[in-house]
Amino acid sequence: MDKFRMIFQFLQSNQESFMNGICSIMALASAQMYSAFDFNCPCLLGYNVAYSAGILLAPPLVLFLLGLAMNSNVSMLAEEWKRPPGHRAEDPAVLRCMFCSMAQRALIAPVVWVAVTLLDGKCFLCALCTAVPVTMLGKGSLAPGLPRPELTRLLARVPCPEVCDGDWLLAREVAVRYLHCISQSLGWSFVLLTTLLAFIVRSVQPCFTQAAVLKSKYWSHYIDSEHKLFDETGTEHAKAFAKVCIQQFLEAMIHVLELGHGHGALAAVPAGSAAPTATDGANAEREKLRGITDQGTTNRLLRRWHECKPPLRLSQEEPLAGNGWAGGRSRPSRKEVATYFSKV
Questions:
Q1: How many Å apart are CA 293 and CA 300, to the nearest integer?
Q2: What is the DSSP letter of 130?
Q3: Roughly what angle, to the nearest 10 degrees, separates helices 92-106 and 210-259?
Q4: Which of 117, 150, 200, 290 is 20 to 30 A from residue 38's alpha carbon, by CA?
């Protein structure tokens, strides 16, 4: 159990690196999924484009949503977006920064899928086989004599060698090589454009809006840290509350058994009743509760935390000036006071 706890704490402290690794694994998985996927073009006029568009767009959308769902910050982003303003106004720039950070990781697997699909060429061949220039690649003297519906019907069967019956008009291998060449060109162009776009977003943009980027990153990290610390503090308070309730119940049960009332009197004692004699351990646990010792108060505080979070302002002796300093005025010296507590 201790080893699992250490692994969980390590993943929490290295969440960004962990999410990068997950996105890389998903990218490799998307490439392996496409290589294992058996692409079968219907070779029917009107169905080729729909089937190819579904193969090209549906899996990337699923991978993108899966990448967002696997990110632990998506629930935090939704909570901050729907949170009532209260004492703390919502900052759209911070929410955009958080969403962009998650979207950049979630887009890795869909980009790999689209790039692999275009480089493979089967999807592009199935979708645009009816656009092959017959007059340039085939027997142009025979093409004008065919009606347009019959010509498109013959071209729609080019991806399927077992049903292709237009060899007298167009050599199938020539059409396949022609469309594969275009598809691979589009695939490498897509890879180049996405690489340049990623370079611009990661390198060039902060050079122009450095102050805004730093502010958004700072408060996005603050929101993340605030949620984590609130969960940790709430977990400690819940443990202390449960421990005190259990101690009170057990002490009340022992007291009833000592009085000899039996099970009938034991059933009449509520679970949260105070014990006649509290131990030092119970008192120490009650001190951790900070006066929050009943369910109603806890629920009100949790509701108030959600509806009316405290403002992002620490208590100070004098207000800061516009540039963040106290206008050059010297602050009064502080007196250090040490207070000692002793238990009697």
A1: 12
A2: G
A3: 90
A4: 150
CB 136 within 8 A of CB 170: no
CA distance 203 to 148: 51
Query: Tens-digit pLDDT profile for the chain (344 aa)?
Result: 454 455 445 444 455 555 556 666 777 777 777 777 778 888 888 899 999 999 999 999 998 998 888 887 888 888 888 888 777 877 888 888 888 888 888 888 899 899 999 999 999 999 998 888 877 776 655 555 667 787 788 888 888 888 777 666 777 888 889 999 999 999 999 999 999 998 888 887 777 777 888 888 888 888 888 888 998 888 888 888 888 888 888 888 887 887 765 455 444 445 444 444 445 666 667 777 877 888 888 888 888 888 888 888 876 544 444 443 444 444 444 444 433 334 43
Would you state the structure tokens that stand for residue 26, as one six-digit string? 């998903």
Q: In terms of DSSP H, where are the helices of 156-277?
A: 172-199, 205-208, 210-259, 262-268
Which two three-digit tokens encode residue 208? 């122009």
User: Residues 6 or more apart from 122 whose CB is under 8 A from it?
Assistant: 39, 41, 159
